[in-house]
Amino acid sequence: MKRLNDFVVKFANVNGSGSASANLLFAKSLFRMGLGVVPKNIFPSNIQGLPTWYEVRVTQAARRARRGGVDVMVAMNPQTYAQDLAEIVEGGYLIYDSSLPRPFPRDDINVLGIPIARMCADAYLNPRERQLFKNVVYVGALTALLDMDFKVVRQAVRDRFKGKAKLVDPNIEALKMGRDYALKNFKCPLPVRVKPGKAPKDRIMITGNEATALGCVYAGATVAAWYPITPSTSVAEAFERHAKKMRLDGDGARRVAVVQAEDELAAIGMVIGAAWNGARAFTATSGPGISLMGEFLGLAYFAEVPFVLINVQRGGPSTGMPTRTQQSDITTCAYASHGDTKHVLLFPGDPKECFELTADAFDLAERLQTPVIVMSDLDLGMNEWVCGPLEWDDARVHDRGKVLDAEALETGPEFQRYGDVDGDAIPYRTLPGTHPSKGAFFTRGSSHDTYAAYTEDGQVNAENLDRLTRKFATAEKLVPKAVIRRSSQTGKLGVINFGSTQAAVREACDLLARDGYKLNAMRLRAFPFGREVAKFAAGHDRIFVVEQNRDGQMRALLITEAGIPAEKLVSVLNYDGMPLTPDWVRGKIAASIESDKSVAAAMQLSVRAM
Amino acid sequence: MTFMKKPNVRHPGLRKNELGLTRRDYEGLLSTLCAGCGHDSISAAIIEACFEMDLPAHRLAKLSGIGCSSKTPTYFLNQSHGFNSVHGRMPSIATGANLANRDLIYLGVSGDGDTASIGLGQFCHAMRRRVNMIYIVENNGTYGLTKGQFSATSDRVSKSKKGEANLFEAIDLCTLAIHLGAGFVARGFSGDKEGLVPLIKAAFHYKGFAFLDIVSPCVTFNDHAASTKSYDYVRAHNEAMDRLDLVPEREEIIAQAEEGKTVTVRMHDGSLMRLHKLDDTYDPRDSESALTTLRKRYSKGQVVTGLLYIDDEDADLHTLLNTTAQPLNAVPMSDLCPGNAQLAKINKSLR
Lengths: 610, 351
Known about the structure:
heterodimer, A: alpha/beta, Pyruvate-ferredoxin Oxidoreductase, domain 3, Rossmann fold, 4 domains, seven-stranded mixed beta sheet, six-stranded mixed beta sheet, 19 helices, 41% helix, globular, B: alpha/beta, three-stranded antiparallel beta sheet, 19% strand
């Protein structure tokens, strides 16, 4: 088996053993060598002891999807030897800690034993060091086996431990220990190896949550309230980390307030209170938090309070799979809360878009005076992705929406909080404290007239609900458009997807085109759907809707909200909690097309027979 | 009475405050509560206090949850922004609003259902966070809007209007507030306006979480002979612990207080609060003594009123979070958005 710059390495570790840092070092070094890397952290809901895996696909720069299959397995966890062994492709490699040598019942793979524990026991006295450096030793061995540029790896260690100089040398020593063992005992490099690639120099490696947090900083969010929940926690933590650095006034005080709330209800309540009072505010959560926030989401929709909600989706229902990915909150977020409610949703496709769409979300929320939900997911949020650099246009003006100041209240027409003055169904609002005698109103979740006064007049309430429907039509024009990628002008087959599945679907389309199936692809970026969505559907006979949930939630939304005929939309569904692979998507779509062909052929035959 | 519009008639001789406003300028819409409801007396006391303090009403935000009490912000301070939120969640709305603009005054109005049951968690956490606000519970021991169920502040010995016994112990909100870090804890009685107005004023001057538990009889469902939250019961068992004088910063103190009987507290806005103790056995600056007094008197069936506890530590949520002095909602975007050059540095660190 020969593989140059195109293989998968998987690390099987024990959670809490310090492997994450070494594995990231491995991925980062390959990234710095100009290669495409797709790291996936497959971790348990646990602090210490359970199995955890880290998978790195090495590929050409443009590829960003997980591949599936393992060419090189670094098996450091005896608990999962059997499972890990089974995953290795024929001709692949198993690297294991041979301090206690053992046989592996497969003769179609290559087994490389390195006595890692023994080497560390000999080299270190401190038990914690003996454990931690085991991880660095296997990375060291890989640098020789895969022909990695050792200078790059060494530099990555220096950068990793910047400011902790004491840690640099021991780590490099441990790397060398593994590297020297491999050079001495194996024929290095293996036929599976790398050589420096030519990826664009400006690429970055970042998690979606980090990029989302930066989007909040750049959007000018000043109040964040949140409750810890996997996989969204790192959004709030990264926001606080960045804001504490970049938001200091002359006296060292902060131009930001971050509160870890007592629960998700309080988190969203604080955000609504702050947004009502004119601050840009957000919260970040995942499925269970969304359920808890339902009542407040309805209030914000009905009282028209603008804020941003980041939903980093995980496996459901209920507590579900907290450390696995899904896109299964589409329906619940689109219609969150009782009564007739609808929310604006944005679907970023990679971390760069997490940054951009999160910043846009604040503008949209204030322009539309409604909550905007950014629909990320665990794969996008918690895994490192390689993408283009984040960019900010310094000429950009934050859209603060329709807020009347004291002068406007003084000179303008009589203030009606919920009146449709401009014909776009978006009303004007005022902030508390603006004017001594004009512009005060009562925000409420109970039915209200255009002056925000309580009313039980059903007609008045119906008119207000109608205006909210018209406001949603305005939203349709403002949200980011779907991205359409055509491989054929005349083809009648299409595929629709959204969010983190983009990487796999795009690669799958290329594979399908190679097989002779040319599909036009549309990536949704927002709900409500723009006109281009129905138009795309009208131009195609059969459209595959790829999504990571059981019930085809986006397909249902497309049928209900974009009026696309149900028979056109074929669900391609995955809900095993793992990021999609292009091969899986290709297989599902090809099989469906093939079966259609056979059905069509059979029908033609039967017609002829008649 | 919702069909009636409040007439906009003013007597030319009405007294004006320093802002040139009359008491009427601090009123709200006509109350839709039952005639004689204790809550309306509390609204009147709030109006009185704000008028006398020369408060610019638009610099105050009134916040509430759901229930009879939570409706009352409509009935006072028409020039203030109001937020009638969802049931039990006013504390989080108030916390967020306060974070966005530390310069306004936040007046939360809640009830015993809204605070002691559905909203107990948020109430507790707002106190431990030392949110700078005035939090009033209009406590009638019953669910009025849903027609008379027991609330969590109903005393065990109290009975419903239909004569049903209450099975569960009452939650004493003042005790809880002292335990959880509210710096200003007082109890008032809606039937005692003279005692109530100074308490409300003092709460306005306090920086931090000022809690006012105001017993406010429900004339429709909980004003009968077997109730411990009826006008008659509270009048008969009310034990006033102190009487308050609030001396604004600009006024000189003339009268000498009687040694040992008067406690003087300098409020954070510079004004002085003088507390004339009617009971020598406790010190309102000592939380242990306040808790003991509350417990002892409660076991005797007494309803103690007055300022029960005050902690003059000067630290609210903003102090703890080290937020900038400028209200966050007024910081210009140029100070919030770090710009592309900074982003280029961040990109570099991600390579």
